[in-house]
Amino acid sequence: MAICYQPPVKPICVRPSTTFSSASKSPSLRCNFSLPFTTQIREPEPILVSVKAFAPATVANLGPGFDFLGCAVDGLGDFVSISVDPNVHPGQISISHVFGDASSKLSKNPNWNCAGIAAIEVMKMLGIRSVGLSLSLEKGLPLGSGLGSSAASAAASAVAVNEIFGGRLGPEELVLAGLKSEEKVSGYHADNVAPAIMGGFVLVRNYEPLELMRLNFPAEKDLFFVLVSPDFEAPTKKMRAALPGEIGMAHHVWNCSQAGALVASVLQGDLVGLGKALSADKIVEPRRAPLIPGMEAVKKAAIEAGAFGCTISGAGPTAVAVIDSEEMGKRIAESMVEAFWRVGNLKAVKAVKKLDRVGARLVS
Amino acid sequence: MAICYQPPVKPICVRPSTTFSSASKSPSLRCNFSLPFTTQIREPEPILVSVKAFAPATVANLGPGFDFLGCAVDGLGDFVSISVDPNVHPGQISISHVFGDASSKLSKNPNWNCAGIAAIEVMKMLGIRSVGLSLSLEKGLPLGSGLGSSAASAAASAVAVNEIFGGRLGPEELVLAGLKSEEKVSGYHADNVAPAIMGGFVLVRNYEPLELMRLNFPAEKDLFFVLVSPDFEAPTKKMRAALPGEIGMAHHVWNCSQAGALVASVLQGDLVGLGKALSADKIVEPRRAPLIPGMEAVKKAAIEAGAFGCTISGAGPTAVAVIDSEEMGKRIAESMVEAFWRVGNLKAVKAVKKLDRVGARLVS
């Protein structure tokens, strides 16, 4: 999709990094930067005065899908409200409020806040120079939980700003905006922010240029995530430092085949196969699980309670299991919470949530 | 599928390794060995006096699908004829003829011939002790070409023996029989013999127990392989020795994501995506291509001529490209042959063949 600024308002000069082309009809999305330096396009006007967007939590890595696969989880996430604000300098954004348990840990400087960074990036992409915006962030997700907290803020914010100006950017451009935020916070990885924006399962195929593949889990099938978050800090940096620098060929082939099986299971709606692949990582999980007290026992408890598979969500400490029934999910969650307490001496909170198939969206 | 020997003839004692259970209705096939040592089952009688089976060539590895993914190619392959022969000692097999260009290099000792090894294994699985068989092998595939020559002989033979006794073994059991042959010839890898028996694309998910996933390429879409085999020897051992022992994390993640994209492209019938993934291996192909004179230029020529992707077939030296039209395939083949000659100073033979969706089958 090439961006065509239809209703001419004010001519502005757009740099290459603000323009895109992509094949948005295909399940594979791609972004190229192709317009010449001096292309004249028009700054869009706001079509709404105020919007509120929601973006879901995400489970990245998914075992053998390490660093390239993620999916969205319904009913958990962040909200971002954006208003046109004449008191804010045109072309800039101001963060008015940050609500939620994690609010005290978050900066209100938009250059150091995920929602702020993504909003600024979308404004740049759209070429907004005449309108100032005010942003309010409502954190529904805890920080550093392994549930894509930073990505959810960025995704909600990117969608909100885009929608206030008529929704001219496609999902892939919004992912690029979100990536600017992720880059500052946890590294240039799209496996949280892509599913947070696009919903469902997303495979990150390439970064140069960005290429994303939607993996459609069949609509007629149910998929529930059992999410159990212990009261434990697992900083992404530390969890990344635990990874091996080099991987033996046998383990590489094994994980590749499990990644292939995981992708096939998602597309075929084979939950048993999905769970088995999720559990089968021989490279990342074996290094990270020992750093989260009780994690190995929690995985064992989940499987024994009937889960199809279990692994670490993102960089942890949340454990994620998959199942096809909410009722079963609740029983599995109980077992996992119990195991965190019994073996890891950690209190944990639980949730059983469906796959989110929509991604970030306006809620008002 | 449990094996039920229905028409009782002669009671025999079956060892565990001759019995199987599997979920053959699922796209994921699995073999377990579960019957106790002393189970009494019946030796089946031949229902035919003579059969002839064909098994197709196969392309294994498929770039990032290294060592776990393969597919079958129609119109190229080996034929095996099997006859009940009262002159052969009961329970044994004798190789009467080996035809074809490669025949002089192949042993007629069934213990050292791929077709013989697989036939013996199927006879063991079925518990054949009262009937002797005579085998004739017609090699359609050259040896050491990277087109699954040994697997085709084993697959055709396994299917032929199974069918002469009523076809009681399922595809997964036949793959296990073929694996016994592959183990002796080129290593315990099922990525040739599984698609040679099952047809289409097959993902080898596990060996202990053997688990195979069929990946159905949409029936309504065409997929052509352009196969160009230079006059050059690329021994599997040498090609395997060229592989890196350790792989950096960045390359591991890249290849895993491309493997996922490859699997998704197959299932979605996305030939452009399939070709791109096929071409994207950063681990195996970069080590092996320089050992085949002209290979890098051949790949470049294929892409420039319009191929969606190109890589080394199996361990080489055949180059394989993919395209959706036979006409285009022929033009691409010309370019590849020309590049092998121009850059590698190698003569090469070409073929443009469809995906084989059936696998090994009786032809008379």
Amount of beta strand of chain A: 25-35%
Mean pLDDT of chain A: 89
Using a beta-carbon cutoff below 8 angstroms, give the protein chain pair with the largest interface and the number of residues from each chain: A-B, 38 and 38 residues
The rounded distance between the terminal residues' Cα atoms of chain A is 26 Å
The level 1 CATH classification of the largest domain in chain A is Alpha Beta
CATH architectural group of the largest domain in chain A: 2-Layer Sandwich
Structural class of chain A: alpha+beta
User: What's the Cα radius of gyration of chain A?
Assistant: 20 Å
Largest sheet of chain A: 8 strands, mixed
EC number (chains A, B): 2.7.1.39
Organism (chains A, B): Juglans regia
Domain GHMP kinase N-terminal (chains A, B): 120-200
Protein name (chains A, B): Homoserine kinase
Describe the protein's architecture and organization:
Chains A, B: Keywords: Amino-acid biosynthesis, ATP-binding, Kinase, Nucleotide-binding, Threonine biosynthesis, Transferase. Chains A, B: Its EC number is 2.7.1.39. Chains A, B: This is Homoserine kinase. Chains A, B: One of its GO terms (molecular function) is homoserine kinase activity. Chains A, B: It is an enzyme of class 2 (transferase). The structure is a homodimer of 364-residue chains. Chain A is of the alpha+beta class. The first copy, chain A, has 2 domains: 206 residues, Ribosomal Protein S5, domain 2; 131 residues, GHMP kinase, C-terminal domain (Alpha-Beta Plaits). Chain A is 32% helix and 25% strand. Chain A is built from 10 helices and 15 strands. In chain A, strands 2, 4, 5, 6, 7, 8, 9 and 15 form an 8-stranded mixed beta sheet that branches. In chain A, strand 4 and strand 5 form a beta hairpin. Chain A is globular. The first copy, chain A, starts with 9 loop residues before the first strand and ends with a strand. Chains A and B meet through strand 8, strand 11 and helix 6 of A and strand 8, strand 11 and helix 6 of B. Strand 11 of chain A pairs antiparallel with strand 11 of chain B, so a sheet runs across the interface.
